Amino acid sequence: MGQSMDTVPLRNAIFGRRSVRAFSPDRIDALTLRALLAAAVRAPTAMHGEPWQFVIVQNPELLKHLSQRAIEGLAADAARLGAGRDILSQPGFNVFYDAGSLIVICAKSDGQFAQADCWLAAQNLMLTAYAMGLGSCVIGMAVPMLNLPGVKLELGIPPESTAVVPIIVGKPRSESWPAARHEPQIVAWR
Ligand SMILES: Cc1cc2nc3c(=O)[nH]c(=O)nc-3n(C[C@H](O)[C@H](O)[C@H](O)COP(=O)(O)O)c2cc1C
Questions:
Q1: pLDDT of the chain along its 190 residues, tens only?
Q2: Per residue, what are the HEC states of the chain?
């Protein structure tokens, strides 16, 4: 699934991408996932450290189970969520929005810039997904759950690694338009 990314200019990807939260049931194939990861690892990386590791979850039962665990954890700490807590109690809410694929970018070191490197890789991945006709969304809500020792064990994340960026990917169910942004706030230009 997906299309060649050569047809989408970078500017269109940057200005056209938006977070997608509704997906068609088709699952992304291995070739497409590998293309996304190949783009991810082209990101700049401090001291050429390449501290990233990737976990891919496509098993629908496992995704549901992980969503449930995330919801349980978040509900226990609902005060911190503010307005976001209402969504947790919606019947059938899935923190991964029933996407067919979850890619978790993990940092294998706790170096100063390891997490920054993972985020840069994440942006490469998401822009490439857009260029291939796919939708993506960072699921920050899932980070605490993914770092529980039992979940790391279940997913094969080494104990010394940290899950940094969970990203869902899939074929968007419908067309969407970019979310607005404020003008860049320049606080100094000397
Ligand atoms: C660090 C981070 C965490 C996020 N966590 C979630 C999340 O848990 N659930 C969700 O639906 N969207 C999440 N998002 C997506 C943001 O809501 C989205 O990027 C923002 O509303 C701007 O919209 P856009 O990406 O369509 O431009 C997250 C984005 C970032 C960068």
A1: 555 666 789 999 999 999 999 999 888 999 999 999 999 999 999 999 999 999 999 999 999 999 999 999 998 887 777 767 788 888 999 999 999 999 999 999 999 999 999 999 999 999 999 999 999 999 999 999 999 999 999 999 999 999 999 999 999 999 989 999 999 999 999 9
A2: CCCCHHHCCHHHHHHHCCECCCECCCCCCHHHHHHHHHHHCCCCCHHHCCCEEEEEECCHHHHHHHHHHHHHHHHHCHHHHHHHHHHHCCCCCCCCCCCCEEEEEEECCCCCCHHHHHHHHHHHHHHHHHHCCCEEEECHHHHHHHCCHHHHHHHCCCCCCEEEEEEEEECECCCCCCCCCCCCCCCCCC
Q: Tell me how far the alpha carbon of residue 190 lies from the centroid of ligand 1, in angstroms.
A: 33
Pocket lining: 137 vs ligand 1, CB cutoff 6 Å: yes
pTM tops 0.90: yes
User: Which domains, ranges and CATH numbers included, belong to the chain?
Assistant: 13-170 (3.40.109.10)
Cβ 70 under 6 angstroms from ligand 1: no
